[in-house]
Specification:
mainly alpha; 5 helical Cullin repeat like; 6 domains; 3-stranded mixed sheet; 3-stranded antiparallel sheet; 62% helix; 4% strand; elongated; isopeptide bond; ubl conjugation pathway; Cullin_N
């Protein structure tokens, strides 16, 4: 701003001349206009004006507006009959007049602008911008000064005219803007706007420009945007001029520019470089708005840029997406996500592509390790976890953990975990939960390579990731229960805390009912410890010691996944302990029956028949057979059957282990299990030797393991039928009447958290409930059911 602009344009603190001690003059317009016009010309010529001169001009306007001399001026806009009503309470009853002065000010501004525009007629491009912005800056400042010493006219006469409904009367500053718009702006608008667009294009092409020229034009266009009725009451512009004359052509020009540039760039560069270019261009456009355009244009401009640069080329983005996934280009994937996310629904296709890609990767990973994974749960589960970890990190880093991409990861993992090469090879959809339960057993069982507690906790958390995707959670529950029972009974758990932690995780995931039996197992173990202490004290009190280390576990039949064992005649060495405890327990608990699980029982036998003394860790069946050799050193198999009552199919497996350990021998060296017959001789090998003095010969019976697995699967199917029937009854009790399809869908929905019911099984369960008279088919609608209370 030039140094001669020493006056403030704010005059709110200037008092009326009459109240500041100056003599009030009755001034007609003709008497004051020449001096007033000269002052106004000086203002618009940017001449220096001191405060005294400013006050003289202010007084001219004030004295004229408050003049009571009827000859002074004729106010044609106010009817004569209303003159008495326009007398103010000030100025000794003077009328407020001003229409003639207002017209002269308007004429002055029109004449001034007509002359001014002639000086820039031949200017184009940057020169016309310099001319336009400089003249606008000067004109705006001068008009504010003019508005200042016409403030009395604004506050009284203009206000009265507005209140009377004369919407074509403005405060003097707004009058100046309207006049500029009608004369100067309309004449130069096309040239100025075109020059602005050329300047912006030069900048987009990398040339340095004077951005102040553009911001000056934008500020002018905004200031000219009076509302459509051109009301004087609103001080806020409507941006109409700015939008019509600058924003709209600017957006159109932007579309043309980037349409051309994007096509040319893509012809010469890969999509990865194009994405970097788009990022750069969008940042440039944001900066452009901040530097020299109105902030209201930001969303419109960016939407147009995104449409031209991204939306029109989405197919290219989608085609490149899988290549980037294959190459592990996470940075480029993140860039693609950020760009495509700007387009409504643009990410949907990326989510679909990601889901398919992860599914394919998971299927291929399991296919590679299928043969090993069939019998190695560690390989199977860790293969799944590697795939999940890789793409979970990708979703986190490249896709900002977007819910839609997390869902795509979850869907893909759910599909390949529940249906893959391993499940197809075993023809069992329940293979995944079974292998996961076995993997848990490996983690939680004592071994020579037991991990630290923190590592074990982390491994269990990883298990829960896979568990989340398992559809048949009831299958996992059954197998986990089976392996947990073995660990507790055989006392092979690596850590009670780890066992409790895992159960807590399962409870958090599936609820109390899911883990109730598992928790009851732990309760039984604790109760058994107390029971053994009580039994030990009982034996001491009656002074009948057992003379052996005897420990018993009493398990609730409804909570433990064990089935009745084969019969066994206990040797006399064990019979006394067996009978003593049975009597003790019966005396403590009337009505309870003990069923002994010999196949899960074990003990230790100390040898005195060999050169060295050995301690053998053996199953109850093995102990019963070995103790027979205290009587003599050779038996026939049929003799052992008669004396122990062990079934032949079980006995041959027990004898096969004892033959293999070389404790027992037969006529045939290296006798196989299939070769053992009733008349096969069995002898104690008196020359037995072993480097170890403590030897574990306890091996599980294969037939029992097979039967357990078959029983487990059978129990799963039976439990599922009961769960389906219970769900149907719950639904029908609430709905009363329901169509077949709706009932099927609701059953599937209710049970999906536990397992995925097969529709034929649901239909079969419906028929069972109809037979049991819980439901009936409607007579007129055979596809609908009614609940029978």
């Amino acid at each position: 701003m030039s140094n001669n602009r020493i006056l403030s344009t704010h005059v709110s603190n200037i008092n009326n001349p009459s109240t500041s001690g100056q003599a009030r003059t009755q001034a007609g317009l003709n008497e004051i206009w020449d001096d007033l016009r000269q002052g106004i010309e000086a203002v618009y010529q940017q001449q220096t004006m001191n405060k005294n001169r400013y006050m003289i001009l202010y007084s001219h306007v004030y004295n004229h507006c408050t003049s009571s001399n009827p000859k002074a001026s004729l106010d044609t806009q106010v009817p004569q009959k209303n003159k008495k009503n326009t007398i103010t309470s000030q100025s000794e009853g003077a009328q407020i007049i001003g229409s003639e002065l207002y017209r002269k000010l308007q004429d002055f501004l029109e004449n001034y602008l007509e002359k001014l525009k002639q000086t820039g007629t031949d200017l184009v491009d940057e020169e016309v911008l310099k001319f336009f912005t400089k003249k606008w800056e000067d004109y705006q400042f001068s008009s504010k000064v003019l508005n200042g010493f016409c403030s009395y006219l604004n506050r009284h006469w203009v206000k009265r005219e507005n209140d009377s409904g004369h919407n074509n009367v403005y405060e003097i500053y707004n009058l100046a803007l309207v006049t500029w718009r009608l004369i100067f702006f309309r004449y130069f608008s096309n040239k100025v706007t075109n020059a602005v667009l050329k300047l912006i294009e030069r900048e987009r092409n990398g040339e340095p420009i004077n951005s102040r020229l553009i911001s000056g034009v934008a500020e002018c266009y905004v200031a000219l945007g009076l509302n459509e009725t051109e009301s004087k009451q609103s001080n806020e512009p409507t941006l109409k001029i700015y939008k019509d004359y600058l924003e709209e052509p600017f957006i159109e020009d932007t579309e043309r520019f980037y349409s051309r540039e994007s096509m040319e760039f893509l012809r010469q560069n890969p999509i990865t470089e194009y994405m970097k270019r788009v990022e750069q261009r969008l940042e440039e456009e944001k900066k452009r708005i901040r530097l020299y355009l109105n902030e209201s244009s930001e969303s419109i401009l960016l939407n147009k840029c995104e449409e031209v640069l991204i939306k029109k080329h989405l197919d290219l983005f989608y085609c490149e997406f899988e290549n980037l996934l294959n190459d592990g280009k996470n940075e480029d994937l993140a860039r693609m996500y950020d760009l495509v996310s700007k387009i409504p629904d643009g990410l949907n296709e990326l989510k679909r592509l990601l889901e398919n890609f992860i599914y394919t990767q998971g299927m291929e990973a399991i296919e590679k390790c299928c043969d090993t994974a069939l019998n190695d749960p560690k390989v199977y589960v860790q293969t799944i976890l590697e795939v999940h970890k890789k793409y979970d990190l990708l979703v986190l880093s490249a896709f900002h953990n977007d819910k839609g991409f997390v869902a795509a990861l979850d869907k893909a993992c759910g599909k390949f975990i529940n249906n893959n090469a391993v499940t197809k090879k075993t023809n069992s959809s329940s293979k995944s939960p079974e292998l996961l339960a076995r993997y848990c057993d490996l983690l939680l069982k004592k071994s020579t390579k037991n991990t630290e507690d923190s590592e074990l906790e982390d491994s269990l958390s990883q298990v829960m990731i896979v568990f989340t995707y398992i559809e048949d959670k009831d299958v996992f529950q059954k197998f986990y229960s089976k392996w947990l029972a073995r660990r507790l009974v055989q006392q092979t758990s690596a850590s009670d805390d780890a066992e409790s932690t895992m159960i807590s995780k399962l409870k958090a995931a599936c609820g109390f009912e899911y883990t109730s039996k598992l928790q009851r197992m732990f309760l039984d173990v604790g109760v058994s410890k107390d029971l053994n202490e009580t039994f030990k004290r009982h034996c001491e009190q009656i002074q009948q010691p057992l003379n052996l280390d005897f420990y018993i576990m009493v398990l609730s039949s409804g909570s433990w996944p064990f089935q009745q064992c084969h019969p066994l005649t206990l040797p006399t060495e064990l019979e006394k302990s067996y009978q003593r405890f049975t009597d003790f327990y019966s005396s403590q608990h009337n009505g309870r029956k003990l069923s002994w699980l010999y196949s899960f029982s074990k003990g230790e036998v100390v040898t005195n028949c060999f050169k060295n003394r050995y301690t053998l860790q053996a199953s109850t069946y093995q102990i019963a057979i070995l103790l027979l050799f205290n009587e003599k050193t050779e038996f026939l198999v049929k003799d052992i059957v008669d004396m122990t009552q062990i079934k032949m199919d079980t006995l041959v497996q027990v004898l096969a282990v004892l033959f293999k350990s070389k404790l027992l021998v037969s006529d045939e060296e290296d006798i196989e299990e299939a070769d053992i017959q009733l008349n096969t001789p069995v002898r104690l090998f008196l020359n037995y030797k072993n480097k170890k003095f403590r030897i574990n010969i306890n091996a599980p019976i294969k037939s029992d393991i097979k039967q357990e697995d078959e029983k487990t699967h059978k129990n799963i199917e039976e439990d599922r039928k009961l769960l389906i029937q219970a769900a149907i009854v719950r639904i029908m009790k609430m709905r009363k009447v329901l169509k077949h399809t709706q009932l099927i869908n609701e059953v599937l929905s209710q049970l999906s958290s536990r397992f995925k019911p097969k529709v034929p099984i649901i239909k079969k369960c419906i028929d069972i409930l109809i037979e049991k008279e819980y439901l009936e088919r409607l007579e007129n609608e055979k596809d609908s059911y009614r609940y029978l209370a």
